[in-house]
Structure formats: structure tokens, C-alpha cells
Amino acid sequence: MITIKEIAKLAEVSPGTVDRVIHNRQGVSEKTAKRIRGILEQHNFKVNRIAQSLALKKKYTIAVLLPDSDDENLFWKSPLEGICKAKDELIPFGVTVETFFFDQKDSRSYINSFKLLLAIKPQGVILVPTFKKETEELTNTLRQREIPFSFLNISINGYGNLSFIGQDAFKSGVLAGKLMGLCMGHKVDVLTVHSRPNLSNFNNISERIKGFDHYFEVNDLKNTNHYLELEDFGNAERVRGSISEILLKNPEIKGIFVPNSRSHIIANLLHGLGNPKPFLIGFDITEHNAKALTDGKITFLISQKPVAQGYRAIETLAKFLLYNRKPSSQILSPIEIITKENLPYADQKRDSLLSF
Amino acid sequence: MITIKEIAKLAEVSPGTVDRVIHNRQGVSEKTAKRIRGILEQHNFKVNRIAQSLALKKKYTIAVLLPDSDDENLFWKSPLEGICKAKDELIPFGVTVETFFFDQKDSRSYINSFKLLLAIKPQGVILVPTFKKETEELTNTLRQREIPFSFLNISINGYGNLSFIGQDAFKSGVLAGKLMGLCMGHKVDVLTVHSRPNLSNFNNISERIKGFDHYFEVNDLKNTNHYLELEDFGNAERVRGSISEILLKNPEIKGIFVPNSRSHIIANLLHGLGNPKPFLIGFDITEHNAKALTDGKITFLISQKPVAQGYRAIETLAKFLLYNRKPSSQILSPIEIITKENLPYADQKRDSLLSF
DNA sequence: AAAATTTTCGTGTGCGCACACGATAAAAGT
DNA sequence: ACTTTTATCGTGTGCGCACACGAAAATTTT
To answer: Does the beta-carbon distance from B174 to A53 stay under 8 Å?
Structure first.
């Protein structure tokens, strides 16, 4: 690997001048700049990122705003894990990552945490835009202060975000539909169990349902889709009642689709209702879901490499701050099909050369 | 992040002494060593990998021995891609990666390429142990010279390799069986199309078939498995003849399993034989397979993140050489289920903070 | 007790780059 | 022709660490 010093010798200038050309800084005549650029290209010069990182002394702070993961909703543990991993790796780069949490069911906590976030004066922000209106406010502030920000996991358009890191929710629904169609055939009824639209993260959920239904429409399958809207997945008694009611009324229902990470709740209820091995498609590998999948109470889980999602969100933003590398506007996670058989191999940790 | 110099001040010694303690080098009395270790722990000191890499001047050469990818077998392009990526990133670490190829159908080329490989005196080797007997020879040489080596993609035991990077072939077969069982139901006949056992890479193929059959046995499904053994997937006329013959004889065959990356050949033949949308499970996302999947001629592809496989093989070996970090003996790739719907999101490139 | 040896430790340099500072040369102003 | 301004470039230092070299102290040998 050729160094700046060597390039300088070849061009008969000082290393400082080469440095200026590399970074397009002013203070070098067009004539010599051109010559140096030629030599750089000719020798395929690439900055040694390692030396660069060591020399760079600018400090950056990235702030993250994401839902906290209570016992009821374990999903957010995974992106957080990826975020923490990126955080560790970024320390020697002079990048600090600070995390702020909010309650998914309380938009005020979203606003409040954001205020705390602003107080640390971050140079970049990652956020999960759970609440639409409030997000408009927040992003206005960020744009005003010229703080770049990316959306994580939930995609909404027209807010001037640098990037979106997450899954194509609609397509993941389509895939769920395909699996249902392939395994259930044409004439069987299916049931979609979802929560109330006004709850958080609904953007993804509704897109999944749309995608699911879309598959049946486009492929002209003659299945009947039933829907069960629950107010609160946490209320076991009421959920049990609603489920058994709709299943009794529609005994021809054979396949069940739960487009959120609380699939295990439905799976375990069905088990209790005398259906130990239901055909059920759920979302996300949480601990509970993994257990239900292993026990055969869930057939398929659609997953999205949530750990990698968190990691990449930080990584791309850091790259933008450090090297001014603009990420693509959509960084789409894989849409993984997880069964009992391939679960042990899913969502592996990744580590980089710099991690321990 | 606390530095060596700061630790030295706290311990009232010189940075050099701290350095000696960190690397367990001799030349420091147990008393002061203990004191320094205490302070290191207390402040949770971690070496700055970036500064370390810059200071390290030891050069390493990693040699890779893998099958070349002709038009007939595109699979190996993917691991190579990952290897090249790792190679680029490793340059600033003083690690050079050299690749050597052999013909999968010619064990002599395996031996010959290995000789060339030895000539560059690598400090570490990655190899795809396609031929069993010959691999024994090669690994003997490597052990003799104390050159650490890892196996890529094909797993064979008892050769003293540092690590294996690849898929659990048996389990991937089990998963294929599961998908077949789920979609085909209990009474349908299925056909497994494979190549002759003496061909290269047979270890993986036979394990996949074993896994596939195992699923049906364990779950007591009453399907009948038919087998078609082809001498050469490349001979279109003969393959067509064999396929149409077995399908005519067994019209009840509804599902087809092709446990190798040439699934697209069978898929296209079936298309020609008047079965435009067969139920077919194949392996690996090659260009041809991806096309056939998109066209609906293949239902499922089982994939294994081959790009990541190549990358990780190099990465783990480099980490071992650079930092003496022993990888786990099995680095298992995910067993991915790929359909038309999630294909666009599969096997994404990954890049690190140090890549361009 | 002096010399020789070994143990224990400090100092200094360089890895490749970024960037501040100052020097020189060219252009503009007076 | 001289000063002032501006454009152009070179020099030097530090980022955190590894490692070679040598100095000092402790130990052994004579």
C-alpha cells in the first residue's frame, strides 16, 4: 500500500500538499493538484483508514431514541444489542453513542426523551418514529439544527431522514401470505390476529397485513380471510375469549397469521384451547417466540435480523459523520423465514476485526 | 478510553512496563506486574485496536485454496467475493491474502495448486477439502510446518483444522424435508435428484440427502422417496431422458428435491416437459437459480450466506494470527429459506467501518 | 569487595495520517 | 520600488501503541 509520503516524493511536493489534494482542501494550485491526482490514481492510492482514524481527533456523539423493551415486548432488546456492539467498536474512532428510551404506548415519553437527547448535543441521531405527529416536531427541530438523522425499523416518508434501516414490511407480509398459501392450499380459511391500529408501531403491522392480503388477491386464491382485532395482547382472559369465540364460529379456519412479535401469546392460547400444533405464522425471534417455535406451537416466524439492524444504523451514520459517506436512503433487512429447524443458526452475532 | 500512558502514570512506572504486562512479556517483577494488572482491570483498559494495528509491523500471508467457478458451477463465485472483500480490508493490517484455484473434478489440480500455495510460505491457510484422501496429505504437510488452517464449506473431522466455516449440511437437508412435508402433505411421492457420489463436494450433498430422508423418518410421514442419480448434470439430453422416464413411471411424484446448486437445470427441464410451475426445492443462490426462482420454476432455495462464509473464514484466521484469538471450532452459516419474495433481500453485502 | 551477570525498568522511534503553523512565492495595491 | 495581501506550499507534532535499545538496580560470581 502506497503512502502519502511516497506519493509526495513522486510528485516532488510535500506530504502536506498531497493531503490537501486528497481532501479537496484549498491552498494548492490547479496545476500541481492535477499532477498529484494523476499520481494518486495511477498508484491506486487509498487512505489507510487505520492511520486516519488514529489521527482524527474530532469527536462525535450519536444519540439513539428507541422504545424500551419490557417483558411484554422483548423485540427491542435485539436492535439495542446491535447498537451496543457498534458503540463499543466505535470508541477508538472517537464516536460516542448514547441511548434514550421511551414508552411505546406513551407519546409524551417520546417527546420527553427527545428533549433529554437534544441536551447532549449529538452530531447525529437514530430514531424509531413510532408516533407520526410527534415525529414531525422532532424532525423539524433536527433539520433546523442541521443534525442528520436516520429512521430505524419504522419507515415513514417525507421527513428528510438520511436513511431508513429496516425491513420492507409490506413484502414481509406478502411472504407470509405465500407461506400460508403454499402450506394451506386454496380452500382453507385463514385468520389474522392483530392489535388496534392506534397502538404504536402500527405502520409496520398494517403494512404486513396489507402485504398478506395482497398475496391472496394477486394470486387469485379463494381463501377467506378472517380478522380478529384485539385491544390488548396482554389481557390473557379477554384474548382467550375472543380467540375461542371466533374459532368456534369459524371451524374451517386452519391457518393463523399474527403480524407482530406477540405471536407466542396466541400460540400458547391455541395450545390451551386444544390445538397443540396449530399452523401459525408469527413475527420476530424473541425469547418467547423462539420457545413456541421450538415447541411446535408456531410454524414460521418472519424475522428481520434486528441485531444487525441496530448495528448498521449506527455504522452508517458514523461513516457519514467520519468520512462523509452518504448511505443509501433504504437499507433493507433480509426477510428471513425461521422454522424450528433453522432457528439455531439465525441472527448470529457478527463481529469485526476491531472487536474483542 | 484510558491509554497505556495514563495507566503508566497511575502505576508510577513507564509505558514500556505497562506494555510488557499487557502482553505477558517477561522482564517485569511479579510485584509491579500485579499492581499494574490491578490498575488495568480497575480502569477496564482495552487496547486501542486501531493504534495497535498501526504500530504492528508483522506481516502475514493467508493462502486460500478453493474450487474455480466455471459457467457450469457458479457457486464458488460467492465465497470468493467474500474473500476478496476481507482481503481489501485486511491490507492496512499487514495481512495479504492470496487465492489458488483447482478443478473440482480433478484431484491432481488440487494437489498441484496446493504446491504453488506452499511456495508463497503462508502463515495461515483456508481450504475447501473437496477430496478426502488428498486432504489428508495436505493437512499433514500443514501440521508439520505448523501452519494453522481452516476448512471452508465442507466439513470433515479429525484433520486438526483450526475451524470449520460453513453450513450444517445434514440440518439443511432436514429443513428441506420439513418444507416438502409442510407443502406436500403426507401421501405424495417425492423425488430426489442427485449426482454420482464420487463427484466432488459429495460430503455436503450426501449429508443433505440424509437429512432430507431423516425428516420423513422421524416424523413418520408416509411419503415415498424416489431417487434419480445422474452422472452428469451438464449432459442436457441424457438428463432430460432420465427425468422424463422416472416421472412417467411415477406420475404420483409431486415434489422434487435437488440437493445441489444445479437445481435450475432440473427446473428448466421440467418446464420443457410441460410442468411450468413444479414444486422444487434447490440449493444456493447462483445467478441461474435466482432466475429460475423468480420465474416460479423453483419454489424454495436453501442458501447459506456464501459471501459471508468466505469473509468470515479469512476474518477469523486473521484474528487468530494478529491477536491470537482462537475461533470456535464450528462457525455455522445460517440455513436460509429463499423464495421469490425474499430473494432481493438475501445475502446482502456487509461492509465494515474500515471499508470504502 | 569488586566484577560479571541477570533482572527490571525507562526512553525513544516509527507506524500513516490530519492539521496547525509558519515560510515562501506570487499577485495586488500604493 | 516598496508594502500589503493572497495564493501556494513545507514543516512539525501528535494520535496510541509495539518494540528495540540501553540504563539502572538487584543478584550472582569470582
So the answer is: no
